[in-house]
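User: Can you help me understand a structure? I only have the sequence.
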Amino acid sequence: MRKFKGIKLSIVTGALALMLVACSKPSNEINQLEKDGKASQAIDISTVEIRDAHGAIDAPVNPKNIVALDNRTFETLSDWGIELAAVPKAVMPAGSPYIDDESVQDIGNHREPNLEIIAAVDPELVIVGQRFSGFYDDIKELVPNAVVIDLSFDVSEDADKPGENLINGLKDSTITLGKIFDKNREAEELVKDFDKTIEDAKLAYNGNDTVMGLVVSGGDIGFSAPGFGRVWGPMYEVFGWVSALDVGGSSTDHQGDDISVEAIAQSNPDWIFVLDRDAAVSSEEDAVPAQDVIDNSPALANTIAVTKNQLVYAPNDTYTNESIQTYIELFENLASALGN
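Assistant: Let's start by predicting it. Here is the structure, written out as tokens:
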């Protein structure tokens, strides 16, 4: 299991940045900027063109007062030591250092967010995505002086290629963050690792075994539709998995679909892949782990997947942490299991 690296602050970074700016301009120009009180402005106005869900936009480089609302970005921002002004702590992975940092404001969850907090922190950049994408216009109106970017991508049933959107969306978001926070090398390394794990997982699958994606929540076992939706669904397209069961009218969220466990068992999958929803959101000590639910299910006991122990569980924080790092870990686990 990955651990967030946390936030590392360095006073030296700011000093070095000032020195670099000074070295890049003639001394008479620096003097004039200082006289005009514009030396800091010369640094702050640096921008880079990026593309988000709404098109091309000029985003600030190394912005101040950042609000991050996309759960696909929290781990990357943390690993890169990016300070944040406000986040939705209720829907963040438990290991994130932003949760315990009292200087980081909490806007609440995506169902009833306190958007006024975003205005109060006077952000230069707001990162919207996924759960908060529906508030994009509201946030833009609320903070007209901020750059608001939307890193959402479509993995729903309406998308032509949900799997392709998942892979490209994670890579594009990572590269975009690298440009904004001057972490291009780190972003490229993440994408390189991501591509490798995808290729490894593809090669490990034999192309014939049937696959069943499940979501366990509140002790109940739900069916995760192949082809679309978050986590398992798009992977059928990415890896060419053969679905053990196809059901029309399936959902696109993490709740799982109302298909009986008996129907799931009757499909007799060769492999079962499981998302433990409660592991990421439950604060109750008596919450039943997904593995226990699967192991103690009489209906599933005689399936090929269970008898051969051909099960893979998504990282525990996946429901609140669909970062590129999460998928790297998950794809590594898939490659290791399928390759045995």
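Now, to help you interpret it: The first strand starts at residue 47 and ends at 52. The CA atoms of residues 217 and 277 lie 5 Å apart. Let me know which part you'd like to focus on.
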